């Protein structure tokens, strides 16, 4: 694709990755078939190639981005489905990440928008603050009946009751020690996921060791364009990991995992931190990589709809592994249409773009429920919360743990 980037811009280590991807794009349009927002809206400006045109103009010319450009770039889910069909191998992640950071630095959003983004970045990365906010949700729901709260109401509707900590299970004779990242929102609302994962892995001689000194991975800040914050989170994470000796690094949320697997891109051109981040990323392992398919007899026959998170499909590229684990465990899988299309959760997207998020959610649930499953399973807390609506929704670790003799998940009781 023809571009007008200057020699000075090409020499900028932060801009060069995006400029390189823009040049690779041939505007063939193959990406439109797999882009969720284009599929539901039919607007070329809400397709990857349409957004790339906005990004090119914005990054080439500099200055204040147009309202139109920000509007359509904001609508991107970062599902990266477009990467799966691009014949030119355009790495769209490098484009949208740089564009979001540029918008964050050069565009003044309306006050309400700035506040909600600040709230997400200031609360959700910290489990203690998340629990405090969740504790205030009942009061907020009462106030919402009198005072319109816009997207704050969306946050309250999606809120889950905070749970207390759950203990991790250690194997009698550890064969491997894996550093486990503490997570943030999941730690506050669904700590049972990590507890279940630890039981499944301990049966295989794998010990999950909480990584002391590490906090949020920084994915939330990164996708909001708050690059300095995401870099600080990443530095803290890398430093904590380097201080110990582990056989890998793990987090049970694939949304975080997909981000961590490409952590080196958070430090473009940084001679110190980019190689350190690359070593950290190489050490990351997902739950389905640690668990080989094991034939067992589940406590009861179940029809299971497995929803593969976009981060697992397009970031970690581990398609099919979860389904193999569930089939070996004796569950009947119920395939459904458009399994590759995003459910609309996408981290903070469901709060920032509630209408589009809900459209994708209803489309996804309609396809899933056509197969009449008894339970929906996924590998990411965002997807689990997004799809909860009547039928029980579990993390894959919870269902496998139950099949192997662990406790019955609360939502199945």
Which CATH class of the largest domain is shown?
Alpha Beta
Uncertain segments of ≥5 residues (pLDDT<50)?
none
Whole-Å distance between the termini? 56 Å
Oligomer: single chain
Number of domains: 4
Radius of gyration: 21 Å
- Helix content estimate: 40-55%
- Report the CATH topology name of the largest domain: Rossmann fold
CATH architecture of the largest domain: 3-Layer(aba) Sandwich
Describe the secondary-structure layout:
Blueprint lengths: L6 H4 L5 H9 L11 H6 L6 H14 L5 H8 L17 H15 L4 H13 L3 H9 L1 H8 L6 H8 L17 E5 L4 H5 L2 H11 L3 E5 L8 H5 L3 H16 L6 E2 L3 H7 L12 H11 L3 H4 L12 E4 L3 H6 L5 H8 L3 E2 L15 H4 L1 H16 L5 E4 L2 H7 L5 E3 H8 L10
Parallel strand pairs: 1-2, 1-3, 4-5, 4-6, 6-7
Helix pairs in contact: 2-6, 4-6, 12-23, 14-16
